[in-house]
Amino acid sequence: GKSPAIKKIITLAHKVAPTDSTILITGETGTGKELIAKTIHKLSKRSNESFIAINCGAIPENLLESELFGHKKGSFTSAISDRKGLFEEGNNGTVFLDELAEMSPSLQVKLLRVSENGEIRRVGDSEINSVNVRIIAATNKDLWQEVQKNKFREDLFFRLSVIHLHIPPLRDRTEDIPELVSHF
Fold first, then answer.
1. Buried b / exposed e across 70-80, counting CB within 10 Å, b at 16+?
2. Strand blocks (E) in the chain
3. Helix, strand or coil for residue 174?
4. Which one has a higher pLDDT value, 60 or 39?
5. Do 25 and 138 contact (CB within 8 A), yes or no?
6. Using alpha carbons only, what angle is made at residue 157 by residues 152 and 163, rounded to the nearest 5 degrees?
7. What pairing do the DSSP bridges indicate for beta strands 129-130 and 119-120?
8. Cys staple from 138: which of 25, 67, 79, 121, with CB 3.0 to 4.6 Å?
9. What is the pLDDT of residues 7-27, one digit of tens each?
10. Cβ neighbours for 96, distance < 8 A, ≥ 6 positions apart
11. Contact at 8 Å (CB) between 52 and 86?
12. 74: number of CA atoms within 13 Å, CB side?
């Protein structure tokens, strides 16, 4: 886009990409949150490493924990072998957590631990593993309002929103429509 709002976001993305700060991207569904996250990753010093995206709202809670943190063989019925989670697979890269507000309180605690000190524990494991990932999270909800309703941890909110980018909806930046039409 060429609107002042999008130019401001792109400029900020260029400034924050070289850092390892966690980033929270907010905006309505379809505003391009994942596209901005990928852009930040491509401009970062982690660009040669993995960019792993997961929609936290699309996976049931019991499976999401295993997807993110991995599991040990035998930790549940279908765990027939040890499995790395996305944080381990994305080590040294970027993990993009889409629809973050859908994450359960128990997983929020585990995510807080990863964001604070890079420690994860696979489901069914007693061993702690270290990972080095940049976390970029996104949501279409007002996360601060979710904190006020006790649906999202305040400490995690502050940990993830070190840098906060809000993408306005297309109806507020109609000057971007011709460029989008041309692109598609």
1. bbbeebeeebe
2. 23-27, 51-55, 94-98, 119-120, 129-130, 134-139, 163-167
3. helix
4. 39
5. yes
6. 150
7. antiparallel
8. 25
9. 999 999 999 999 999 999 999
10. 34, 37, 38, 41, 51, 52, 53, 54, 136, 137, 138
11. yes
12. 1
CA 40 – CA 77 distance, rounded (Å): 39
CA distance 65 to 54: 12
Nearest to 27 by CA among 157, 152, 143: 143
For residue 49, give the DSSP letter: S
> Per-residue pLDDT averaged across 16-39, rounded?
95
| 123 SS3 class | strand
Contact 135, 114 (CB under 8 A): yes
Place of tokens 């964001």: 115
Given a contact cutoff of 8 angstroms between Cβ atoms, the answer to whether 37 and 136 are in contact is yes
The string of pLDDT tens digits covering residues 151-179 is: 999 999 999 999 999 999 999 999 998 98
How much is the pTM? 0.91
Distances (CA, A) of 121 to 9, 48, 99, 155, 174: 35, 26, 22, 20, 46
Amino acid, single-letter form, for residue 146:
E
| Residues paired with residue 164 on neighbouring β-strands, in sequence order | 24
List, in order, residues 6 or more apart from 44 with CB less than 8 Å away: 17, 18, 94, 134
- Taking Cα atoms as reference points, which of 96, 88, 161, 89 lies closest to residue 118? 88
